[in-house]
Write a structure and sequence with these properties.
This protein has 287 residues and is of the alpha/beta class. It is built from ten helices and seven strands. α2 packs across α3. The protein binds S-adenosylmethionine.
Amino acid sequence: MTANWLLALQERVWGLAPWDAKKISDEWFRAHFEYAADVVHHWVGGVLDMPTAKFLNFGCGDGITDLSLVLRHGATAIHGVDIRREYAKLPRIAREQLGMRRIPSALTFETITPGAPLAGKRDLVDGIMSWSTFEHVQRDQLAAIFADLYACLRPGGYFFIQIEPLFYSPFGSHLRRYDDVPWHHLLASEDELWKVVQSHEGPIDAAEVDFGFADFGVDGYKKFVFNEYLALNRLTADELVAVTTQAGFHVVRQERRHVELEIPAALQGKYPDELLRNNEIFLLLGK
Ligand SMILES: C[S@@+](CC[C@H](N)C(=O)[O-])C[C@H]1O[C@@H](n2cnc3c(N)ncnc32)[C@H](O)[C@@H]1O
């Protein structure tokens, strides 16, 4: 990736590189550039001033959502952190999907060690966002990470978290691209699930194929996605609220979404209906 100071200099001379959303051909890109960014903006843009606020994106992935927040919603400072380096692909992705030759200098990225503290390394931020990440964080690290993020946020700042799908919901395994039987992960053994994934043939939903797919290949991606399933922390919406408020945050607003599918007899009474149907949480926290 080009050094940020160089991007900033080029931007000062030539302005922001031109981009064109009509060039978008990839559905994963579109889902993040349009839907995810719009939702984040809807929740965060209402409480913070996008052009002046400094943001931290925890679990930024490939950074597509951050790019959109800058290009379409006026953000000027987003620092993305992640334990993987998918964001290193962003310049190429922006070139391919938007015809954009340089990513904005408003974006900076950092690879972190899981659970390593961030507080004290940079100035306090006005806002933190995290999209589809906290179900992947090791459960025993959650409390410390939320305490650390609390310390990264300025008093009066906001933290927006989205998780979908929640583990106990019909497709909470994150395996839907290979297995569309609702709640299969709560009904079948690990071996049975792996066999379903392994034997899957044909295309998978393009909106669920991230830019890592090309690195892994068809079989490697199956293994990667299945390992991600095994590593899910099974966090519920209630647990998320409990662990974040224990870290010091207060709930400003939340929305929980539910699916109206018939619960299989084998699961009825085994788990609360509310838990089985709740597939998404949007949580806006304050400090
Ligand atoms: C499903 S991806 C979502 C990425 C991005 N937010 C998006 O919407 O495309 C989950 C991300 O969480 C990251 N992640 C998992 N555990 C993490 C941790 N302890 N700290 C930071 N990032 C983490 C993963 O590397 C991955 O990029």
